[in-house]
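Quick illustration, no need to memorize.
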Amino acid sequence: MGLDFGTVTVGVAVSDPLGFTAQGIETINYVEHKKNLMFERLTDLIEKYQVQAIVVGLPKDLIGTESERAVASRAFAKSLRRRYRLPVDLWDERLTTMAAERILIEADVSRKKRKKVIDKEAAVLILQSYLDKKRLEQKRDE
């Protein structure tokens, strides 16, 4: 499962059972629904998709410095580890939101609709890049 943890929402993506492709599932608005309900929804999704590991986007600036959001993402990852007892990796998410925005613009998605799905699309990009790197490492080790 890939998660893009923002200040108001969490974008959610999952991979196929073989770990080849990432698909966007939903965007959870945790301010509107409170954090405990966000965790309840994540629990449902983890069970439904039989999640074995979680990847959380780690926001960094262009030179690799971690921001205040990175501190929040690290704390979120820590709470996920404690709550679900699953491996949780942090993944450099530099430029994923901008790339997601570009993809949605090219798909001619309206500005209003983009705002609703941008975090889900960013979660897809985070998870897909993570899966691609893992697959490359596995091939190299063979």
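The longest helix spans residues 111-141.
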